[in-house]
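for ur thesis appendix - Protoporphyrinogen IX oxidase. copy paste whatever u need, i formatted it the way the template wanted (i think)
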Amino acid sequence: MHIPDIPSYYALKSIHIIFMVSYFAGIFYLIRLFVYFIETKEKPELEKQILQKQYIYMISRLWNIIIIPAGIIMTLTGLCMVVNTRGDIPFYILTQKWFHIKIVFLIGLAFYHYWSWKSIKKIKNDQFTTTSIKLRMMNEVATIILFAVVFIVMFKQFFMGMWVSLLISFMVLVLTIMLVVKFVNRNKKK
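the 3d part is after this line
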């Protein structure tokens, strides 16, 4: 029978949560820096050059010092928890349907991470043309992934029995976020 060392499992889980928070804080701020960078294109040339240089510096430091290390530690502790789960089968969690749904969102997060990395490369090569409105919408993608993963994990015992109501609630949340972003952008233009 596979019984995890409970204190070490909860230590892993705590570290996983701490670095998940750090990772998402970094991702949210990264997209905000992308928006600031794009908005410098409307500034006078000298001001634009100074600001863009500073934003590239901030983006690089955020990516290399916070996002990448937090993402690595978050991923490693997550994988360790997959191996060290309760039950009489190693990797027991992989048999759980709620975990399969979580993995779908984590794959989405991996694509989002890749998009962020490619965007940084484009910024550094002065090839970044995404609009600030699109960036604000992209920032909400990370929010939606965060909400989905947290709710899936917190309601895992009930998830399969109430998936329809959770899916409807999730879609209402997504729609609300999109409407708020559009409303804020519309008011900003006035």
